[in-house]
Amino acid sequence: MKTPYSVKSKLDTILPRVQKPGRYVGGELNQVIKDWSSISVKIALVFPDIYDIGMSNLGLAILYELINQRTDTLAERAFSPWLDMEALLREENIPLFSLETAHPLSEFDIIGISLPYETLYTNTLNLLDLSGIPLFSNQRNDSHPIVIAGGHATFNPEPMHAFIDAFVIGEGEEIIHEIIDQYQIWKNHSNDKQQLLFQLSQIKGIYIPSFYRPVYSTDQRISHIEKLTEFAPLPVIKRIVPKLPPPPTRFIVPMIDTVHNRIPVEIMRGCTRGCRFCHAGMINRPVRQRSVDEIITAIDLSIKNTGYEEVGLLSLSTSDYAHITELIDTLNARFCNKHLNISLPSLRIDTFSVELMNALKTNRRGGFTLAPEAATERMRNIINKPVDNNQLIETCKAIFSRGWPTIKLYFMIGHPLETMQDVEKIVLLCKDILFAGRSVIGKRAQVNAGVSTFIPKPHTPFQWVACDTPDRILEKQALLKKGLRGPGLKLTWNSPENTMLEAWLSRGDRRMSEVIYEAWKRGAKFDAWGDQFLYNIWQEAFCVVGIDPAFYTHRERPIDEIFPWDHINAGIHKKFLIQEYMFSKQAITRGDCRHICYACGILPTFNDLRRQYSGDAWCCPEVTIPQPQSSANNGAFSPLSKSP
Amino acid sequence: MRIRVNFSKTEVIKYSSHLDLYRAWERWLRRAELPLTYSKGFKPHPHINLACALPLGFTSENDLVDIWLENTVPLDDIYQGLIHTAPPGISINYVEEIPSQTPSLQKQLIASEYIITLHKPVTELQDKINLLKNSETIWRERNGKKYNLRPLILEITSQQEPISGKQQLIIKLKAQANATGRPDEILLSLGIDPQNTKIHRQKLILDDNS
Hints:
The complex is a heterodimer. Chain A is of the alpha/beta class. Chain A has a domain at 4-237: 3-Layer(aba) Sandwich (Rossmann fold). Chain A has 23 helices and 19 strands. In chain A, helix 14 runs parallel beside helix 15. The termini of chain A are far apart. Chain B has two domains: 2-102, 2-Layer Sandwich (Alpha-Beta Plaits); 108-206, Alpha-Beta Plaits (2-Layer Sandwich). In chain B, strand 9 and strand 10 form a beta hairpin. The chains are: A alpha/beta, B alpha+beta.
């Protein structure tokens, strides 16, 4: 076994031979080091990509701070080593280690893996392998750490079910303490891992995949989900915090450059807009806001603790934060002489947003970002993101005239019911905006279009929709590439192969874990990195396992099909999703649910919490008559009645 | 007010670059809430001037940084403020006020002194050093450019580390614009792999007349 000392002494000879050795040494400001021998529960928080990316992840920072505030537990960090470092670790037989104390990951009690997106799956396998921990959950014994994963991607945990002992579905701030408490109790009484899994399964929001089994029909679709243990909950309902706890303020300050060098402050969680393609908008309900005071106090304290020069005010829709004007005014008054950069991502398309950004007086060279997502009214009604094109152009004019020479526009192709005309309109709209920009600031005007490809995500109203085929995507992209060139225009897009992988991984069932394993065995890793992603390997892996990937991605699903993720409940009634899906087919929009409740299901699912936190703690309108809740309709695993 | 801080860069942060170190200083000064002066323009930067870049993997002591402040702050307050907000890996030796018209550190700097510990014994080290000293030219190539290393070497001696008994080299190198010697280049010309050594810059030598 490698002790921290032997790891550290070997590192000295290895690090001079790798790029950016600062990724592997820890020792940053605000890192927490505890006495290893006197702490009973040791957790390795793992982000399965390199340090530069993982250190910019807010979820990891929240958990690190919460866990290390406990005196009985320690949290240390580990990230994927880059290829050069991995090669040397394998060559020198050094197991993957934590940054804080260089302990091998296998010596921790709990490995907590952050899975915010699906293209981290092969890296997760690689990390376990580098740690000398058996990849498959059923090959690990009582001496191995327990492997827990959480994050947005785990709302469909099935593709990773074979590798993870327990999934956290939903928000981690409260559940992390319950996990640690149960671990403590278990450690004092038992060393049988099955017992630990049982205890964990009784925590709300925990999914133990080994306690369930999907039963497939002859046509490969799921017929139903079976519980293998009597006490396992079915469905597993996601966990939420009824009120956002105070934000973290003791961020670790990396010595080397990372993706985001800033203080992230989450001002609001969730979104009331109800865009039908949006996974985050569906799974992060209800909307909860922090108070202006709480945000300002957190920023103040974070600056004192870190010295950062930039603050990012994070939310899914910043202009919808109820006190946004007050917040910006207060920030301006308080920090105007302190050279603090404030970034406001995710702004709504209206002149109000421009006024907000204008009030910030920040550097304007970076451009102003808007996300119309589609270019025609019909298409925007289908996806429920209604924006008038005139309003969009007026907003863009205001942006140009306020000193931003560049506008970045995010679109998606592949929306349900999209025609080539809808795609063509993206080109025309960008040109209209560029024309408007030139009328305001002349040739300096620049329009950058980022066009990604729609993936029908689990738990959204579009989960029944089929993805565009790669050929169809290429056809649409060719149209865009032809149209969006010349001075003042720039186009970026995703390769159809990348989109397909993300779609398989996010929509897959349990059999997908074999594909992931086969792909990893053949060298797949860093799939999120365009230059590392190897499409052929994935095709080979599907072939070996004997699954046609089109089964997951190119089938429009009948309304009563049971999805692999149907036993995971995001607090949203399936009948609400069906209703939204049906409305989309008729291009009927539904407005901001801050004002009128469309009965998505979040209130009945969490009615006990809502009663404790009434009023404007949640941005849900008060509903006096509770929605009728029948288990036949909200239970996701029984065949459903037809559309409403 | 212009201050000069004498500091050390220790093992913990030896893998941070010159730019990383600059940013660490910037954040440190913000934590200490010192009244920094900023450049004008789109992206204002605080007025901080580090004497001389230290390559990745080296440690240093008696390193120097100049900092400009909006107004006068008692030196002891500055020192205390910095001590209380210090990042791991940088320690402060002393802070002094210098006249605002003092030339920049780059203009004052004439040489750097390094102490290099050799982890693997090198045979006939003294002979090799003598050979080096007696050469009139030592042609080296760096980034595709050929240059003569010899005039950049001001002094070179060897000694034994008292505790470990390891061999050490003490090297004084020119450190001026377009004439800065790199200690790893000396090692290579002595036939020593820099990866088997620990390189520490122990002194920056300034021109007293300027």
